[in-house]
């Protein structure tokens, strides 16, 4: 594992010095800052824009739950799609630019190369989710006057596991598929399949497919058993990293 | 003397194409070895196999005494490599890149400080503070050479190290390679013959994936000089050149403007017997007939094609 720490340090510096510091953080911070405010004022905004069409229909009073579910839905859709697109080139960009050749002819194994990338970017996502959730939590408390922590944090952490699974998946796909758009397309396809699979209760209960709905359920403050979906998602993520390393080992550069 | 690189029967095939075809090669430790060949001959493919970036289809490749398919981090730590088009992280400065590469080798901080300053100086990049994204191709090439030396390698593999350099940069890199003689084995591929003649002890010439000649430069040029005849006649040099070109032993014939004819021959004995007869048949005067001197360029051209018959 010589070179793992140095290469991981490079990945961290690359996040800080390139477009990576703007895209995912920008998206998550935007949703964290606007989510609670939008949740609070959405009924007024809709009434102001379409009061004639709504007639006597009245919206229930907004609460912190709306801010929480809004944050989780934004994570589960826009943020996840952005993650899939951003990480479609996590490995292939280094092959294309020739940097992989320069690094992998040094004492850095291909397994270390893959593991460093997956580890650093999973940690990066974790930091972003924690910061975004903290901002959502604080703003919700300001806007609604109450913000119980457990529902929001358990939902966000359950989604984080799903996000890490997709970083592992995109690492694997980026090894197999050189064009970034191809890998991203395959990643979106896998997401669609998981969403469909989650409709079948046994899969939803015992596999990572359950993580498509569990974060929203947790954000609503409802009890749900997330143990097996979380465990299987983490195991699958580890398996995908191992597969990515094995596939990369066989690639000629 | 032991071998830094020993290749036996190496073949590398892509689909139906033999990029390398039964290559045998021995590079002695401490030598500066020039690996010559026209574009597409297979030079880069061989370096990719040597560095483990590509796998041999068949054959045995040993590097520093280890089979290349089993080369681990401890062996890679003793090798320096510059690819033909080095890829850098454009957002780093030259110093940051050298420090990053040094850390990949787990070089201690003090040694790394010394080497980084020395190599930045060698590459002429000491005062350059812009990121690599703003570098010219020559600056990148010099940085590429510098990073290949950061670990003070026992074996230095360079793919076309001078191709993007201006004359001053080329001279600096060649001087640096010369200074490594005896301490580091240098194996570099190029198609710039003047570079090879200037610094190399030994060369191999690759053509269409096959090694067509290998040996010390002096030995190679003297071996092939035996195949060259210089002929000077009083008149009718053009017609005589055409007569000679029809002979089966004449590999190439070049007639100069002053009536000097340069002939590359495949059978010197037959040439010695036949040329005077052809001169007599043309009723022209024979001024000079002697064995020619061959440079590396002549050897290269005669082996990989390009002669005029």
**How does CATH name the architecture of the largest domain in chain B?**
3-Layer(aba) Sandwich
Rounded Rg of chain A: 20 Å
CATH third-level topology of the largest domain in chain B: Rossmann fold
Question: How much of the residues of chain B is beta strand, in percent?
Answer: 25-35%
Q: Ranges of chain A with pLDDT <50 over ≥5 residues? A: none
User: Sheet bearing the most strands of chain A, described?
Assistant: none
Structural class of chain B: alpha/beta
Task: Please give the share of residues in helix of chain B.
Answer: 25-40%
Give the beta-strand count of chain B.
14
Low-confidence stretches of chain B at least 5 residues in length (pLDDT < 50)? none
Number of helices of chain A: 11
What is the overall silhouette of chain B?
elongated
Distance between the termini of chain B: 42 Å
Largest interface: A-B, 27 and 28 residues
- Global structural class of chain A: mainly alpha
CATH class of the largest domain in chain B: Alpha Beta
The SSE order of chain A reads HHHHHHHHHHH
What do the pLDDT scores of chain A average to?
A: 94
Which oligomeric form is depicted?
heterodimer
**Mind describing the biggest β-sheet of chain B?**
6 strands, mixed
Keywords (chain B): ATP-binding, Nucleotide-binding, Transport
Domain ABC transporter (chain B): 5-233
GO molecular function, one term (chain B): ATP binding
Family (chain B): Belongs to the ABC transporter superfamily.
């Amino acid at each position: 594992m010589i070179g793992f720490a140095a290469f991981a340090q490079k990945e961290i510096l690359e996040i800080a010095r390139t477009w990576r510091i703007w895209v995912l953080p920008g998206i998550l911070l935007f949703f964290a800052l606007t989510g609670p405010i939008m949740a609070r004022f959405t009924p007024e905004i809709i009434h102001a824009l379409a009061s004639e069409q709504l007639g006597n229909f009245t919206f229930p009073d907004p609460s912190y739950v709306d801010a929480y579910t809004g944050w989780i839905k934004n994570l589960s859709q826009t943020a996840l799609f952005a993650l899939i697109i951003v990480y479609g080139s996590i490995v292939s960009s280094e092959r294309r630019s020739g940097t992989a050749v320069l690094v992998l002819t040094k004492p850095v194994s291909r397994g270390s190369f893959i593991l460093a990338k997956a580890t650093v970017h999973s940690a990066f996502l974790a930091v972003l989710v924690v910061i975004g959730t903290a901002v959502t939590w604080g703003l919700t408390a300001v806007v609604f006057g109450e913000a119980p922590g457990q529902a929001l944090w358990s939902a966000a952490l359950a989604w984080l596991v799903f996000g890490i699974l997709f970083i592992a998946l995109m690492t694997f796909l980026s090894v197999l598929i050189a064009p970034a758009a191809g890998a991203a397309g395959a990643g979106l396809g896998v997401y669609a399949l998981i969403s469909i699979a989650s409709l079948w209760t046994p899969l939803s209960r015992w596999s990572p497919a359950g993580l498509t709905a569990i974060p929203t359920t947790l954000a609503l403050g409802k009890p749900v058993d997330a143990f097996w979906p979380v465990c299987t998602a983490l195991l699958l993520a580890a398996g995908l990293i191992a597969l990515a390393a094995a596939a990369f080992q066989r690639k000629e550069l | 003397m032991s071998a830094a690189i020993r290749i036996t029967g190496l073949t590398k095939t892509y689909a139906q194409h033999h990029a390398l075809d039964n290559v045998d090669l021995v590079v002695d430790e401490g030598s500066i070895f020039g690996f010559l060949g026209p574009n597409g001959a297979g030079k880069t493919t061989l370096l990719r196999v040597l560095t483990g970036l590509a796998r041999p289809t068949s054959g045995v490749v040993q590097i520093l005494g280890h089979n290349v398919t089993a080369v681990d981090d401890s062996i890679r730590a003793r090798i320096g490599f510059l690819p033909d088009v080095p890829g850098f992280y454009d957002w780093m400065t030259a110093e940051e890149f050298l420090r990053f590469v040094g850390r990949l080798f787990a070089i201690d901080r003090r040694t790394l400080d010394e080497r980084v300053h020395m190599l930045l100086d060698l590459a002429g990049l000491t005062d350059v503070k812009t990121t690599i994204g703003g570098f010219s191709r020559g600056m990148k090439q010099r940085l590429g050479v510098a990073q290949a030396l950061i670990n003070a390698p026992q074996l230095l593999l360079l793919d076309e190290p001078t191709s993007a350099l201006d004359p001053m940069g080329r001279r600096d890199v060649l001087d640096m390679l010369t200074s490594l003689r005896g301490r580091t084995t240098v194996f570099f591929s190029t198609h710039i013959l003047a570079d090879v003649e200037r610094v190399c002890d030994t060369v191999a010439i690759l053509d269409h994936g096959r090694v067509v000649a290998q040996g010390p430069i002096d030995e190679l040029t003297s071996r092939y000089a035996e195949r060259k005849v210089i002929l000077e006649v009083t008149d009718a040099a053009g017609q005589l050149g055409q007569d000679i070109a029809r002979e089966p032993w004449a590999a190439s014939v070049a007639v100069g403007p002053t009536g000097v004819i340069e002939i590359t021959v495949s059978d010197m004995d037959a040439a010695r017997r036949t040329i005077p007869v052809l001169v007599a048949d043309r009723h022209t005067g024979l001024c000079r007939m002697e064995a020619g001197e061959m440079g590396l360029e002549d050897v290269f051209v005669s082996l990989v094609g390009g002669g005029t018959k």
